[in-house]
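Entry 14: structure prediction run for ATP-binding cassette domain-containing protein. Input pasted below.
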Amino acid sequence: MRRQPVDAALLVAFLRALAQSARGRGALSIALIIGGAMVESVGLVLLIPVLQLLTDREGLVSLWFAEWRRERLLLLLLAAFLLAMTARAFLLYARDRLLWRVENDFVDGQRARLVQGLASARWASLASVRHAEIQSVLSTEMIRLAMAVRLFVQIGVAALLVLVQGGLAIYVAPALAGTLLAAVAAAGVAFSGLQRAGALGHDLARSSLNQMQTMGSLLSGLKAALAQNLQYRFLRDFRDTLGEARGNRRRFSERQARLRLVFGIGSAVCACLVVAGGALVLEMPTPALILLVLICARLAGPVLNLQQAMQQFAYSLPSFAAVAALEAQLEAPAAGAVEAQRILPGAVELRAVHRLHGEGAGLAGVDLVINPAERIAVTGASGAGKTTLLDVLAGLTAPDGGAVLVGGSTLDVTALPAWRERVAYVVQEPYLFRDSVRANVTADTPCDDAALWSVLELVGADTLVRRLERGVDTLIGEGGAVLSGGERQRLALARAILRRPRLLMLDEATNALDLPSERLLLQHLFALAPRPAVLMVTHRRENLDLFDRVLELREGRLLPLG
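Run finished. Output tokens:
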């Protein structure tokens, strides 16, 4: 996760994204915020004649309604005040509902776009992103991003309220209120420290990522760690990252507490100055002085909220940088310049394909022709490039040199969508949804119960499924947690076969089965009509006699085994 400074560019990018998400609702929200502040100011202004009547002082209103009885005029003014406050309450209700939509639409849009980017990214760029970073951004950083939007809204509300009511205070006592507001503004700038708050926010994002990575390592390796008493190493690492995050939050909390301390003392000093200056120096009328004190008291909360929200916003804004940094790592496939190509019948061919990785391992000029319905097994040492071979055939990885052809046509970005509809790829550790057996096998493939049970029988999973409490509608847990490794592989194979692929690629996809079970499954698979072409990567040699050809990947080239 790249660390980005909290600067104008990051703020502008955030505001641009928020404005694009809010559209017309943003302008309406601002109008409601201003309307609420204006109506509240009107209500405060109405208190002047009320106080004048209560203190038996003359004012414009009492002069305008001189023939009215004092009680009648007081009730009229109170009714007007109540009407203004009621209107303000409805405006704030509408504002809060609208702002909730603005906040949630923005965060949900960011999350949806990021997940869409993950789903459509090139495999090479996706494989380079740490899973912990993806989990951290989609969980912790999205929560912080929602907080950043909420704080930005609070800043806008508090700033408009301060401006409107500050203007009212200046109207009541221009010199005194103007001096105090200028002093408050200067103090706010002096104690802002937004850069430091932003730096702490970046540190928190890094600490959250470290925690997520440590927990992921613990969960993925817990079994082996327990067997060797290594779980305490994970615990130490987690405690270190927990302490780092705790220290970060403590430092930010201490900054907030210091600001509240300074503000509390400063607001008391301002209150004393208002009373002393208004009564002793300016000799203000009592109603006007009371109203000024009331305005200052009402401004204290928004001013403090403004200062605190600005700090917290700077602290939360790095979450937007984390989302943007992850999104930038996800390289999307280039859009085709022509209409999508149709996949032609015929052989699948690799011509002088190069795809090296690590220290020279991978494919170094591989030539291979896979004829329709042909059965090919590929073996080789670990790290020889067998999985890379399958990734290139699936179009997940583009070759550095050479070409992949299907039916005599080059497999490029315009043909990939159609090609991926015609292939099935089963890996050693298959992914299963947290759903029923039926949902996992059918996925998006239309299928009736007869076809479903037929494919389950073909892979030898029908007996297992019939024993389950709800049959094909039984939930199998996270990643198929209630099943064994071999059972998960059988369901993944059933899902692949149900697609009726043109090419079925198996990457150690039967290694959790015993040898007789593997042989029986392959015999059933090879008896399919029509039969797909099968390319199987395996370390086992006991069942290789079932294949038409057996190749070995050695020094980057495919050679006949032997």
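Notes: Confidence is low (pLDDT under 50) at residues 1-6, 335-339. Will compare against the previous run tomorrow.
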